[in-house]
# Entry
Amino acid sequence: MPVTRSPAPGKARKNIGLGKLLKGAHGAFNSALRVRLAAHDITFSQFQHLQNLWKEEGINQAELSRRIGITTASSTDVLDSLDRMGLIRRVRGKEDRRQLSVFLTPAGAALEEPLSAHAVDVNIMATKGLSETKIREMYQLLGHVIDNLRSTETAAAASRRSKSSGRPKPSRSSDQITR
# Structure
């Protein structure tokens, strides 16, 4: 069985793709944060919802889901759990009863300081040993990577749209089988 070894500290990881390296960093970061959140009986998904509500409450469930980047159905389970815990309340719209706006309860608002402090602590832990200059440089480089990939993704989507809109539609006669 082959043995995989980590490169010596300070050595470049030439044999690992950037995506794989970022996935590893993301996993390690989230794992460290999840441990701290668990001390408050909060999951990472619950934290994401609360974090968005600390910025702006009273938004509807669909918008909250969009901001987090998950489906409304996935968000429903998380909001149900936060509701059972007494951290949020949902209010039906007066004009559209299907519309649910989400608000923090005092208990949900009170978690902002301790949970945000944990996120800050994990950021500090993750950048330990890096100078302020290196941290700024890392943010700039990662921002550049994100911009590159988003612009490539946007261009590819636009190209797919233009190709699909330019396709001739089959006529009924070509769809029919003649005997």
